[in-house]
Design a protein that fits this description.
This protein has 271 residues and is α/β, with parallel strands linked by helices. It contains 10 helices and 10 strands. It has a single domain, classed as Alpha-Beta Barrel (TIM Barrel).
Length: 271
């Protein structure tokens, strides 16, 4: 699996398994399938309600902990200095781990809350409980506010990115600050599967529509988190390193940009 080097020198597999909306047996089984087939990067969050099952699947896999990259996230209602530390400890216990590889602020909920949460996360990082810290659903102005007081720079900004919402400007800003973009909903939550233009590109390369959507992002250096509970799709999603997109393909794919979001704009998050 191809890896990306973060600004702290730690490497992250460029494809991970997303677990949003995956519950109980489904998430346990999907994580086991992913790990058995070569995935080493798993993404979860407190609000997903599945950290316990993700942790059990990791334990039952018997894969050495140092080979894995595990991410979880701080939920909005837990933001703040002391509450962040408690929320993190709760997540760590549910996962059954001694540390996580990446801990993210899930959504931006104001400059002071972000600063207080970040300070706690920096201390957890220094204590060895977190290897890397980052953010999720942060726009440029949110990152600029965080950097006013941050001692440790975020390694990742995990946001909605797909062919319809390629986030070129955000990537340019983040890359200029040494921050990698990570894509959730890289296949528009399944919305691309009936797209005839993408289907033509897929047929040309004897690949799936999902492969094309993921390849487009990975070629830009974006880390991707395709989510599925189906074994066939989990296995297929990582098979994107044996073909190349040409200029004709890119012209077709770039025409899919429509700016439509599936999830709230981080500047207007009400929860």
């Amino acid at each position: 699996m191809q890896k990306v080097t973060l600004n702290n020198g730690i490497q992250i597999p460029i494809i991970g398994l997303g677990t949003f909306r995956a519950k109980e047996d489904d998430v346990y089984n999907s994580v086991r399938i992913a790990l058995e087939s070569g995935y080493r990067h798993i993404d979860t969050a407190m609000i997903y309600g599945n950290e316990l099952e993700v942790g059990k699947a990791i334990k039952d896999s018997d894969i050495p902990r140092e080979e894995l990259f595990i991410t979880t996230k701080l939920w909005n209602s837990d933001q703040g200095y002391e509450t962040t530390k408690k929320a993190f400890d709760d997540s760590l216990k549910k996962l059954g781990l001694k540390y996580v590889d990446l801990y993210l602020i899930h959504w931006y909920k104001g400059e002071q809350k972000a600063a207080d949460s970040w300070k706690a996360m920096e201390e957890l990082c220094e204590a060895g409980k977190i290897r890397s810290i980052g953010v999720s659903n942060f726009n440029v102005n949110h990152i600029e506010n965080l950097l006013k007081t941050a001692k440790i720079k975020p390694v990742i900004n995990q946001v909605e990115i797909h062919l319809g919402l390629p986030q070129y400007n955000l990537q340019e800003y983040c890359e200029s600050n040494g921050i990698k973009l990570e894509a959730y909903a890289p296949m528009q939550s399944g919305g691309i599967f009936t797209n005839e233009d993408i289907k033509k590109v897929a047929l040309k390369h004897n690949k799936s529509i999902a492969n094309i959507a993921l390849k487009f992002l990975v070629d830009r250096g974006i880390i991707v988190l395709p989510k599925s509970i189906k074994e066939e799709r989990i296995l297929n999603n990582k098979n994107i390193f044996d073909f190349s997109l040409d200029e004709e393909d890119l012209t077709i794919l770039k025409k899919q940009w429509n700016g439509m979001r599936l999830f709230p704009d981080p500047d207007n998050c009400s929860f």
